[in-house]
Amino acid sequence: MNARRPLPVVRPVSLPVAALALALALALPFAPRSAAHAALEWSLDADRVEVGSVHIESLRIEATGDGAVDAKFDGVTLPGPGAWGTLAARCAAGPVRCERGTVQRVAEDGRILADGEFQRGPDTLTLVDGEGRLRWGLATGALQAQAWPLPGWLTGAGSAISVQDGRLDGRMDRDADSLRVEGSVRSLAFDTPDGRYAGADLDLTGRAQLTDGRLHGRLSWTAGEALLGPAYLPPPEHPVHVEGVLEPAGAEEQVLRLHIDVDPNGEDAIRAALEARIAALADAPALIGASLNLDTVDLARAWSLGAESLAARVGWPGLQIAGQLSGSLDWRPEHALEADLAWQNVAIDDPAGRVGVKGCRGGWSS
Q1: Interval 221-260: pLDDT, tens
Q2: Which parts of the chain fold into alpha helices (H)?
Q3: pTM recorded for the entire structure
Q4: What's the Cα-to-Cα distance from 126 to each of 87, 103, 134, 253, rounded to whole Å?
Q5: Sign of torsion over alpha carbons 25, 28, 29, 30
Q6: Cα separation of 284 and 269, whole Å?
Q7: Whole-angstrom Cα distance, residue 172 to residue 142?
């Protein structure tokens, strides 16, 4: 006769106890079923579990003697997504506990938001959702995504951003010295509860590496449209590339360097660089200096990347600007703005006839 010996319910669970309980909950199902414990049945109940910034209102894990395990985590709250609902998992019966099974994300009203299957090998844990696949290296900690669907697994109630569509391909790995992330998102669609930020059919590719406090990254926008506050960004005619570095500059400063390229070798190119120095104050970061270098900026292309929509919002709809701009701007709190700018072939066309400029050439230095 199999003996079932439930563990007592704990209310509330402190951080060390919660960590131990979760460790046992994860470790015991993965233990091989030997003859000594083939008929072992056990259960674990806990309320209000908190592990770091992850909150769980209640959990129940129940193992049967045939190797099956049922787990249910209610009221999960994650940093970022916020209220995430319920996570339910079931391990199929077999000679090795939790070698394969199913996992579901369930909303408070009972709707299944995401549904997947998992399988554990000697060195990897794989989660499959339709055509999507996540693979986690148990020893290395590397995470690999292939066509992973974002909406069902990412967005939670109260999220700052709601994701409606998009698939992720990429990889994250780390070693003793650095963390590396690279990947792409296809057909991304999102919005925010206030409607101020949104995107549709976005294709983004990026990579980032963090080493000894230095963060280096690159992001490319190749398709789709976005609303960023008052600025509307239409689908780009050419890919927009932003590359940046954030690194310490002394004990109390950080320096941010950004390079922006749009069709850098074309006639309508945009090539610009921004450097900002930031004081790492205890209450909030403070900008203590900035410089902008404009190698070449096609004004018509730059105008379409948000500035045109801003002008329309302040009463200048349909305003068109063309020409080329180059030079530099430099700002320090203790000095006036220093400028060295030159422009040529500038044309401004206002459908309302309020202003008109053709073939303007000039400069500004201070």
Answers
A1: 999 999 999 999 999 999 999 999 999 887 788 999 999 9
A2: 15-30, 151-154, 299-302, 308-313
A3: 0.81
A4: 17, 12, 6, 42
A5: positive
A6: 36
A7: 6
